[in-house]
Amino acid sequence: MSQMSTPAPRSLAEALRLRDDASLAELLRARPDLITPVPTDLTQLATRAGTRASVVRALERLDRFALQTAEALAVAADPASYDELLGLMRGDAGDPAVAATLPRALGTLREQALVWGGDDRLRLVRTARELLAPSPQHPSPTGLGPTAQEVTAGISPGRIQEIVTTVGLPSTHDSVSAVASLTALFSDRARMTALLAEASPESLEVLDRLVWGPPYGQVTADPAARLRWLLDRGLLLPTAPGTVVLPREVALHLRGGRAHRATEPLPPALEATATHRPQVVDATAAGQAYTALSTVEELLKDWDEGGPTVLRAGGLSVRDLKRTAVALDVSEPIAAFWVELAYAAGLLASDGEADERYAATPAYDEWLELPAAERWAQLAQTWLTATRTAGVVGGRDAKDRTLSALGPGLDRSAAPEVRHRVLTLLAGLGQGASPSAESVLARLRWERPLRGPQPHEDLRGRLATWALTEAEMLGVTGRGALSAHGRALLGTPPPAPAPAPKDAEPTQQGPGDKLPVHHTPVTLDPLSPTEQATATAAAARLLTPLLPEPLDHVLLQADLTAVAPGPLKRPLADTLDVLADVESKGGATVYRFTPGSVRRALDAGRTASDLHAFLTAHSRTPVPQPLAYLIDDVARKHGHLRVGAASSYVRCDDDALLNEIMADKRAAALRLRRLAPTVLATQADPATLLDGLRAMGFAPAAESAEGDVLITRTDAHRTPPRTAPAPVPDGPPTPDSTLLAAAIRAIRAGDLASTTPRKQPPSASPSGALPRTNSAETLATMQAAVLTGEALWIGYVNAEGAASQRVIAPIRVEGGFVTAYDHTADEVRTYPLHRVTGVAELAED
């Protein structure tokens, strides 16, 4: 092997020094926490790579087989050979898939600095071994227990000699050699087979119960014969009073040499349960995309004059969420999803007033002016990258408080990565193929397995389930398959269509049918902001021709309704929303004209002639006579009564009409009194008086102090400018190529400075410390180096107080500065002499 020509590394730091820049870049890309902040040298990088928090994070990001490989190394000898590791992974029977895949898994562990050393001396980093090795407090995922040597450390030498003698081994003079001979026996397959052949079926049954873990059992002070036989031969060893353990070597013999009950070298394949024509998928997804836009618009329109109040602890109350769900005609979890999506997109927020309420933001008005496809692309991109997770609404936080929509505690940092991964898996299938949710979840659990039996904490599984549902609601997928605009959103070109019968439209399998997938799904990294913007624009372009064109007309009917056979252009839709009430939705929207809706349009400043002209211009059918009569009748009465502020008053030229009001029993609550034949006054405010008279069937109009009719257009309530909530990152972001190159250059530079041999004068600083010389000695050494061209080792403290060591070749010393070629930075730099802590000459070699 190539490693034979290079001295074997004695530490992880030395192993990192043997890596090239590309290998270091892969390490820092896989474990970005190692670069925050940038280590000063490779020794510090190795130290940071072995910290508990960093190792735990790295282990949690391993796939199942790589994690099983690390678990096997944790129960192997330290160091272990590749052949020993292979034996633990595939056992005596030998699995060709394990043998073929193990180099990849081991390469992953090496790349992430969890394993170092050559194939003859594989070492798991100490922290990973502590996390994965078996102990009474933390059993190993393999189900193996401690070794015989570890268990016998607490057993008396006399008892150890008794066990050695019972199994037929010669007695020794010390416990160390006795334990060694016992371990050799347990590791010898032939001798162990002969020993177990003497055991009774009852004793073998005890071993069978412990062999796959947990390896600990309870015994009484006077164990039964089947247990006594095992204890006398060391096949069970005591660890505490009343507790015994199956030694690791014995368990491995009983398992046939396998560390795991079942190894999983290959990821589970996705099972496509249905295949549709791509055109059907895209059309279905486009329909869902249009519904998503309509739902968000309806939500914000419902909150246009100010939405629900903000809870004192933040968020939406359960009652307001129910009301919103009823208004949108959806379930409460789905309503929470749309509310959270609009909030994450910056379309709604709290207004910050004393009586704080939720309302649309100014960004919502800008969003409405965009073409429909661009509006959808903005929502889809927000969903793909947002960490706020509507699925947890209604659950409990760590303090057992209910999580409310729009409230705190809804961020789940893993959500964007899970959504992206789910869509990436769908993108790897043929066009039109929709996988089963179970196979997607199985694949994700293999890629990121749970460490330990924690099914209730399977957050990634829940996130994946929610992602599949939300992608369908949003129109990223259609009929369970990824759409063309959904693929574009990921920045991946479409693959070849999945095979399907030519006469199928679509091909739909039964619940139990499975379509084989003969290729591996692609793996895509999350896009950079620039790439994501390009992908979003491409998704909008693909979606545009699939969305229905807005219409400029409706169909008026004699029953005082209007049918919009499709989406309406915005001016028409806005005017119709004022003039009529929505009666039903669907492929076509039905509007109902009522006296109240017509009066609403008149209150907004429209005249009867305006309404007749509007309906005539935008109806493909003649204006029905009942509708024309309704408008004229309401307009004739509108404004006949005038309401102003007295507290408020009513005036009318027709005193008979005022007499009618005074005689009406429903007016008693208004407490009206006549001031003049044509004027009534009340202590009620004008708004209450208007509502009361309208409830009595009149059509009053409000007037100003000058006597002019007030136009009561509804003013949309908007919050001040708000920024969308920033996603909460799942640890440090993955560094880009520029940052990686700069970081590696800095690490190499620091390592060069810390490892370069240098002369050690009597006054030299301790190893690893910055050199210390006085200013005169520093200046003299610098000037001498300018004449000789020699390199020097210096300590330097920058303006922020950060200390570092550098190797420089001085070029010029003047004015309190030294200009030198900095070998560590690979460039010419100028340093103030007063920031140089000291200087030392390098060793001649």
UniProtKB/TrEMBL annotation:
Helicase XPB/Ssl2 N-terminal domain location: 554-676
Molecular-function annotations in GO: helicase activity
Domain of life: Bacteria
UniProt region (Disordered), positions on chain: 485-527, 751-772
Entries under PROSITE patterns matching the protein: WYL
Keyword annotations of the record: ATP-binding, Helicase, Hydrolase, Nucleotide-binding
InterPro entries (UniProt xref): WYL_dom, XPB/Ssl2_N
Domain WYL: 777-839
Entry protein name: Helicase-associated domain-containing protein
Taxonomic lineage of the native organism: Bacteria, Bacillati, Actinomycetota, Actinomycetes, Kitasatosporales
